Amino acid sequence: MTTRSASPATKVFREPAVEPRARAPRRRRRTLPLRRLLAPYVFVLPFVLVFLAFSVYPLFFTLRLSFTDWHGSGAAHWIGFDNYRYLLTSSGFWSSLGNSGVLWLLIVPAQIVLAVLVAVLLNAIKRLRGFYRVAFVVPFVTPLVAVAQIWIVLFDQDNGAVNAMLGAVGLPPVGWLVTSGWAKPTLALLFLWKTTGFVVLIVLSGLQQIDRGLYEAASLDGAGRIRQLRTITVPLLRRSLMFSLVLQTLAVFQMFAEPYVVTKGGPYTSTTTAGLYLYNHITRADLGTGAANSFLLVIVVMAVSLLFVRLLRAED
Amino acid sequence: MNPTLRRSGRTARLLPRRGAAVAAAALLVTGLSACGPDISSDAPATGNAVLQASSDEAPKGEITVWDRSGDLYKVFDAAIKKFTAKYPGVTVKHEAVDIDSKLQNTLITGTDVPDGVFLDDAKVGGYVSHLWNLKDVLAPYTKDIAKQKVDVNTVGGGIYGVPFDLDPGLLFYNAKALSAAGIDPNGIKTYDDLLAAAKKYQQFKPGAKPIHLEQNAFNSQLQLEMFASQLGTGLAGPDGKLRLNSPQYHQILTWLDTVRKEGLGTRAEYLKPSDVSALDSADEVFYPWAIWFDFAPQQQLTATKGDWRAMPLPAWTAGGARSGAMGGSSFVIPKDAKNPKLSWLFYRFLMFDQAGYTAVYGPNSVYPGGLNTSVPAYQPAADPAKPLFRPIDAMGGQDVWKTAVEAGREIPGGAPIPAWWSGAVDYLGTDLQKMLDGALTPQQVIDKAGKDIQTNLIDRK
User: Fold this and answer.
1) Which candidate from A52, A73, A75 shows the least CB-CB separation from B25?
2) B39 closest CB neighbour out of A68, A71, A72
3) Which residues contact A266 (CB under 8 A, 6 or more apart)?
4) Which of A301, B247, B308, B412 could join B297 via S-S bond, C-beta 3.0 to 4.6 A?
């Protein structure tokens, strides 16, 4: 506010006058040169082209293929939803999803618990920390085929080291890879051994973001290590754990190489995972059914992943 | 200005741009999607392209041929030198390739298509629409090629592969172990005789399970087809109809089930550690398998190396055929090959020219005694009196050539391999394994696998 009686020397705060909009000088719109206008689009163009060619186009091509009976040569015939109908009424498709579901149950919960425990221990130890971290990551970077061959030898029913150890303590041999009851747990063990190190890394990075002060305060309040783990570590690791959960769910439902190398989907079809079942269609040049199968698999995996994401949001 | 209003104003300005971008992307994607196969409601084109031989006396050019890596690649590599010596104008680019994983994509896309490919007989039928029909070029030789090999390469009257090897089924046996048990292998003339001999051996060596019962679904179906081939049948007839529900298959499955029920079979995968262990401990002494089992005594068995011999398979009925075919490969020429005529020239040399088949089967740096895991499908090359490979030391110096060639001549024809054969493993191979584990009866295998193959494979082609 202003006053007429104030001396000129007095500094008076004046609110900036608000010019009526109608009187405001019209800002002249400067036209940018065409080159500058196009520059951002040109910069993103390489990515967009690659994305269109290698992600969007295959996606649409596969969608189109899923409505045909194309076997890799000649004309494809439009058959509507026949491939989807066939798969949804096929025992093989549901059995492959069931196998992946059982493997998920055998792998993911155990892996998350194991990863938290290992990460907490790795975070706590002072000596040889680097060595242990590397040791847990080594299986993840070892070629799968090499690991699978070791698994085949270790778990051989007659000459494997595992059965030899069981024999040494008077237990009968187990058909680890040749009986439908044991093949899935044996495969799950391979997957756990191979990929847990990666989950440990994710959890470890989450652990290092937790404020140490929280532990010190809890300690002063008399909370023991187990209580700290339950009330501080696990709740604050929730995002890392959810991320791992979604990632490993995707990995398990797409699992292909492990059963392909170790069991070829057997015995019977007990380890034919959703990924391997899909592959079988493609190798038989039943490309239309394979395309429909991949879309159904995408829907299942997306639904499961979205469920986890929703759960995470609800917790937040 | 109210930020919300400002944002909505901006959004309003951006909408046309975004719409245009999405429309452009959709247009591009739709255009690209149309690059796939034509979609029509017409009957599939059979595309019967019949290859004709070149009349060029001094052929020139380059061909690319695919072989699978390993011993055979090296064998063919050596044979190529003989070919180029005879045809100096032709260059052969020889590539070791994982054919199973590469061929399909290559043929579909038509990119870098080779001029010739080494392919399992069971897979030829699945690719015929991409291959040259070789009926005319093979015509001068067809009468001299083992009938079974012509049949497996024949689809709809066309011949789509140059037959390479014949893989007769033989009964491999541990001669030393049988001799100790007082069993004369020459007395095994029928499968009932084999059961009796196995029982006698088990009495001699309690705990032994003398007959191999394959534990891998694919191999067990392959072995089943060997038995069926012996009876002049196969999963599908020349008309493409399923022949599983037949007295022949019932007889074979019942015999396998008897081996299981009477505890006479070793359940193991072909030459996996369990199998090798049972073979080397002389618990498993009978192995009805293709000639390529002779690799085991030569390379894998230690304790029983030198003890093994081969004889023709027993017959299903007295006087019946003493062999059936198990496996085998041929050479195919893709329609998109750049030089199909030169490719045919190459395979004609390898299979029908004495210099060629001698280079393949005769002594070479890879097999100093000659390639002894199969015999030629071309009958003039498979003369019992003119062996291309030498007697095998690891089999006690037996002349396996003579045994195999004579057995090969007993293989009946009339058993084409349908395009869906490999796919049937998920059903027939799996159900066969269930039967060998005691979970299904022979009739249940026939009914269940028959229904699944019909529904999932034949009706969907």
Assistant:
1) A52
2) A68
3) A183, A272, B216, B217, B430, B433
4) B308
Q: Which residues of B touch A268 (CB under 8 A)?
A: 217, 430, 433-434
pLDDT band at residue A42 using 50, 70 and 90 as cut-offs:
very high
Question: How many interchain CB pairs under 8 A, A with B?
Answer: 109
Q: Kindly tell me if the per-residue pLDDT of B74 is higher than 80.
A: yes
Choose among B415, B439, B409, B405: nearest CA to B228. Answer: B415
Q: How much is the pLDDT for B309?
A: 98
How many C-beta atoms surround the C-beta of residue A110 within 10 A?
14
Residue A48: strand, helix, or coil: helix
Alpha carbon separation from A112 to A118, A144, A248, B152 (Å, rounded): 10, 21, 9, 52
CB of A314 within 8 A of CB of A91? Answer: no
pLDDT of residue B9: 60
Residues A67-91: pLDDT tens digits? 999 887 777 889 999 999 999 999 9
Q: Where are the alpha helices (DSSP H) in B87-170?
A: 99-109, 121-124, 135-142, 147-152
CB contact under 8 A, B107 and A72: yes
| DSSP-based three-state secondary structure for B172 | strand
B73/B96 Cα distance (integer angstroms): 7
What is the pLDDT averaged over residues B358-385?
93
A6-18 residues labelled b (16+ CB within 10 A) or e (exposed)? eeeeeeeeeeeee
Phi, psi at residue B433, to the nearest 5°?
-65, -40
Query: How many Cβ atoms are within 10 Å of A255's Cβ, its own excluded?
Result: 23
Look at A153 and B273 and tell me if their CB atoms are within 8 Å: yes
How far is residue A124's CA from residue A126's CA, in Å, rounded to a whole number?
6
Joined together, the tokens standing for residue B219 give 């191999």
Average pLDDT of the residues in A207-225: 90
Spell A58-77 as b/e; 16+ CB within 10 A means b: eebbbebbbbbbbbbbbbbb
Q: Do A77 and B107 touch (CB under 8 A)?
A: no
Q: Which residue of A284, A286, A287 is the best one to mutate when testing the B interface, meaning the one whose CB has the most B CBs within 10 A?
A: A284
Residue A256, judged by CB atoms within 10 A of its CB (0-12, 13-18, 19+), counts as middle
Residues written for chain A: 316
Read off the pTM: 0.81
Closest partner residue to A284 (CB to CB) among B42, B422, B430 is: B422
Please give the biggest Cα pair distance in chain B: 106
User: Chain-wide mean pLDDT for chain A?
Assistant: 87
CA distance B216 to chain A (A): 8
A143 Cβ contact list (under 8 Å, min separation 6): none
Confidence of residue B69 (pLDDT cuts 50, 70, 90): confident
Q: DSSP class of residue A86?
A: H
Q: State whether residue B375 is helix, strand or coil.
A: strand
Q: Shortest CA distance to B422 belongs to which of A214, A236, A196, A279?
A: A279
- The answer for B92, left when phi > 0, alpha when psi is -120 to 50, beta otherwise, is beta
CA–CA distance from A32 to each of A25, B9, B292 (Å)? 21, 21, 77
Q: How many angstroms away from the CA of A106 is the closest CA of chain B? A: 24
Chain centroid, CA B24 distance in Å = 49
Coil, helix or strand at residue B117? strand
Distances (CA, A) of B124 to A303, B210, B374: 40, 35, 19
Contacts of B460 in chain A (CB under 8 A): 69, 86, 286, 289
CB contact under 8 A, B108 and A78: no
Contacts of B85 (CB under 8 A, 6+ apart): none
